[in-house]
Amino acid sequence: MVPLQGHHHRWHGPLLRRLRPLLHPSHPQAPWPHLLPKTTPSHRQYNNDDDNFVIRRHVDSVLLGVALLGTVIGQLVFGRLGDRIGRRRVYGLSLMVMVLSALGCGFSICTSPSCVLVSLGFFRFLLGVGIGGDYPLSATIMSEFANKRTRGSFIAAVFSMQGFGILASSIVTMAVCGIFNAASHPNPKEKTPSEADVAWRLILMLGAIPAAMTYYWRMMMPETARYTALVELNVQQATKDMEKVLDVSLSQIAEDESLTLPQDPPSYPLFSKQFLRLHGRDLFGCSASWFLVDVVFYSSNLFQSQVYGKYLGKKYESNVYEDAIHVALLQAIVAICSTIPGYWFTVYFIDRIGRRKIQMMGFLVMALVYFAIGIPYASHWQDHINAGFMVLYGLTFFFANFGPNTTTFIVPAELFPARFRSTCHGISGATGKVGAIIGAVGFRWTSHGQTEHPKAVKTLLVILGGVCLLGLAVTYFFTPETNGRSLEENEE
Q1: Could you tell me the pLDDT band of residue 16, with boundaries at 50, 70 and 90?
Q2: What is the pLDDT of residues 400-420, one digit of tens each?
Q3: Where are the transmembrane segments (predicted)?
């Protein structure tokens, strides 16, 4: 029952996030935001005075930045609340924030450009808060319910559901746009029809449906035994909760050993000298690794319009709905061929190979591929964006998911004491999203719009390769292996 609850969660959260590309090209969780710079319904609807339908760079960056900032705040706040008042209580609250803010995005006030963008930015911020809160809570709940022999696979399976969320959002986008296109058949050279304003709002609000459907199961879920026993110091209640859910004794759940209270439970506070001495190294390793992988992932989106533009056909020869359908189709193909396989390779191998080795392997392969396509980019790849290049570039996404993108979600949920577990996972994830802000917003401004220049693309690719090598070094020196040990053993 518990794994299925987690799977529902990881499907609906990414669906909310992956629907965002139709609205805006640089949503923080969109894998291919570059594909939509001039063709989305909202762009054509609110930029009709511009023949190129290009949104201003400062507006683009603000809409991207507020969602990422919301994610940072959500991870910190909900992560701390998960340790203070319980995982289960906060889990339902984060879900409601996501559902209401997703609906709010669709109901963004008025239709004038300035008004709708301000309203949309506000609800995107709230959506980021809800999404951020789900990260530490999902990982912590799954880790505390799972057995040490299969814990990595369960947490990875929870995280990997976002691959199917990517695919589902693409299908929803194609379906909605296909219906609107069949009903109106707009001329691509004429003014964008007013119905397009309904299309993007509908797509955003549909993402709230699968999220809301999980609320009942979240509320029926008991508190985790480890939180009840080790944080609230109530072993008797923990035993009753777990026996009610799984119909087995607590001793069978807790790593085949009896879970008892320590005679002298630790009392040191968060960020005390004792905490930093015992767990500071681990917190640095988790945070730094997540920071570096997010810098790489989000900054790589800046130049992809040039890389993949040839696969989208000529600009402005399709109407707004056909453009969105083409983009969603390409997203679906990439998800099926690269993203989803990467996730499920991790699910299969995580408890066989170990977290640390997979994370190091992912960083290393990503670095080698970035160097292979980056160093000769201006002299060779620029004029030969062919299937070989696409395969190489797809490998970066495969080994990000069969690598640090997944393991950085798993390891923080296994390393820290129960009373700090959700907080430390939130700190690690928030640090990662700071890296995302630097990679997506910071690089966007420092590049001054030159990301399509061959030398700029080459420089960025080489830098990303260097960042991956730095991630490899951080993993080697600061990330311990958590495979095969109970959470209590990892804590010690």
Answers
A1: very low
A2: 999 999 999 999 999 999 999
A3: 61-78, 90-109, 121-142, 154-183, 198-217, 283-304, 324-350, 362-379, 385-402, 460-478
Compute the half-sphere exposure of residue 403: CA atoms within 13 Å on the CB side of its CA: 26
Centre a 10 Å sphere on the Cβ of residue 92 and count the other Cβ atoms it contains.
16
Location of structure tokens 């997703």: 102
Query: How far is the C-alpha of 265 from the C-alpha of 338, rounded, in Å?
Result: 46
What are the tokens at 152?
């990595």
C-alpha torsion 451→452→458→460, nearest 10: 20
pLDDT tens-digit map of 312-360? 555 556 778 888 888 888 888 888 988 899 999 999 999 999 999 999 9
Residues 6+ apart with CB under 8 A from 188: 316, 317, 318, 319, 320, 322
pTM of the model: 0.84
Q: Helix, strand, coil: what percent of the chain each, to 5? A: 75, 0, 25
Alpha-carbon gap, residue 169 to 177, rounded angstroms: 12
| Complete DSSP assignment for 57-73 | HHHHHHHHHHHHHHHHH
Q: What tokens appear for 186 in the block?
A: 């707009």
- Return all residues near 251 (Cβ < 8 A) that are at least 6 apart: 257, 258, 259
Q: Which residues contact 171 (CB under 8 A, 6 or more apart)?
A: 328, 332
Please work out, in degrees rounded to the nearest 5, the angle formed at the alpha carbon of residue 51 by the alpha carbons of 49 and 56: 70
List pLDDT tens digits, range 57-69: 667 778 788 999 9
Tokens of 229: 């026993």
DSSP codes joined into one string, 267-313: -PPTTSHHHHHHHHHHHHHHHHHHHHHHHHHHHGGGGHHHHHGGGS-
Average pLDDT taken over every residue of the chain: 80
d(CA 194, CA 222): 47
* Degrees to nearest 5, angle at CA 184 with 183 and 190: 165
